[in-house]
Automatic annotation (TrEMBL):
Signal peptide limits: 1-23
Name of the protein this chain belongs to: Cell division protein FtsL
GO cellular component terms attached to this protein's record: cell division site; plasma membrane
Biological process, per Gene Ontology: FtsZ-dependent cytokinesis
Cellular localization per UniProt: Cell inner membrane; Cell membrane
Amino acid sequence: MSFKVNAVLAALLVACALSLVNAQYQARHLFIDLERAQRQARQLDVDWAQLQLDQSTLGKHARIEEIARRDLNMTQLTANRTQYLTAGEQ
């Protein structure tokens, strides 16, 4: 009888040990996944800040005006080049 109890206890001990090893293995993998996600989040924050900087730079009035002059050959609107249209009688 004592042998059976010892065998059952030994089997439970081995099962608990295997369960502990499995839990530690899963915890390590979850920790690695967490670190990877945190690293990706930091990179996304850096990318977002860079995109905001780019947007503020690209949207500045002086840059838009310079591109319009250079690439589109546009000129500044002046009063002598302005034409006013009035609605005529029908």
